[in-house]
Amino acid sequence: MPTWIRACATEDIDADDMIRFDHGARTFIIVRSEDDTFHALDGICSHEKVHLCDGLVMDGRVECPKHNATFDYRTGEAKRAPACINLKTFPVKVEDGQVYLEL
């Protein structure tokens, strides 16, 4: 059965930015879009296993800090080489100023 895990407060993330969230042995990123929606996806680049939280958020994408691969943060789709493997996304809900992701 899926479980909702509190990741952060909405105020912890600026618009068009992201933060790292670790749970157990997994790393995620929580992205706040410029439209004020929240998204969760794997936090490690599928190309060279670099933490994406050190990269950039722009134009609906997360950019890896190492080789500039990009991923659509809504779908996890790899959009620019060298990454060619999509990232997994996770359902997100916001309640009382808190962001939760479903595992």
TrEMBL record:
It comes from the Bacteria. Keywords: 2Fe-2S, Iron, Iron-sulfur, Metal-binding. InterPro entries: MocE_2FeS (IPR012747), Rieske_2Fe-2S (IPR017941), Rieske_2Fe-2S_sf (IPR036922). One of its GO terms (molecular function) is 2 iron, 2 sulfur cluster binding. Residues 5-101 form the Rieske domain. Its cofactor is [2Fe-2S] cluster. Belongs to the bacterial ring-hydroxylating dioxygenase ferredoxin component family. PANTHER family: FERREDOXIN-RELATED, RIESKE DOMAIN-CONTAINING PROTEIN. This is Rieske 2Fe-2S domain-containing protein.
